[in-house]
Amino acid sequence: MAIACLCLRYSNAMTTLHPSERPQPPSTLGWRLAHVGDQAHLCRLITAMALESENRQLHAETLSAGVAAVFEQPSRGTYWVLCAGEAPVGCTLITPEWSDWNNATYWWIQSLYIEPAHRGLGGFELLLVELEKSAPAGHVPELRLYVEQHNQRALRVYLRNGFEGQHYHCMTKTLSH
Q: In this predicted model, what pLDDT tens digit does every residue of 4-63 receive, in sequence order?
């Protein structure tokens, strides 16, 4: 089975668009840190993302336990929620990865999903602004993400916002236990 993904990395120094040049989202659209009360929304959005991006049906109980585990042990990551007004319309999980090579923590953008009706409104750009504001406190030099090679729309968005392809291949090995 071939793994079709592309690792992209992003660094503030390589941004192609200055934050002031990025498309401005509607004033009712904004990211906030997720809280425990968002778990049902996160599960709904992550389920939609898995179905759309990989045609995968997630096991609801497993996903719910996985989302809860992040809130129970914050070192696993931080959820963010994109809201249109008060309604959650998108989410992402930011997970840390320690780099001994660089004595720094990278942030991985995972489970990024924005409902179709709210795409193209600058929500991703707004996320980058929030992450760029938060990164210096954690001494984070770089953002990273995986994207399906066939997801051309997402690739265009990421490349337009300063991400670049890397020479890495994504490989997995399923373990049985």
A: 455 666 655 444 445 555 445 556 899 999 999 999 999 999 999 999 988 999 999 999
Question: Structure pTM?
Answer: 0.83
- In terms of residue numbers, what domain contains 89? 6-165
Query: In this structure, is residue 129 part of a structural domain?
Result: yes
Structure tokens at 27: 């004033």
Q: Classify residue 41: in a domain, yes or no.
A: yes
Beta strand pairing status for 143-147 and 104-114?
A: parallel
Axis crossing angle, helix 60-72 with helix 39-54, rounded to the nearest 10: 130
Asked whether residue 177 is domain-assigned, the answer is no
| Count of the separate structural domains present in the chain | 1
What is the per-residue pLDDT across 103-135, written as a single tens digit (0 to 9) for each?
A: 999 999 999 999 999 999 999 999 999 999 999
Q: Are 5 and 149 in contact (CB under 8 A)?
A: yes
Is residue 173 included in any domain, yes or no? no
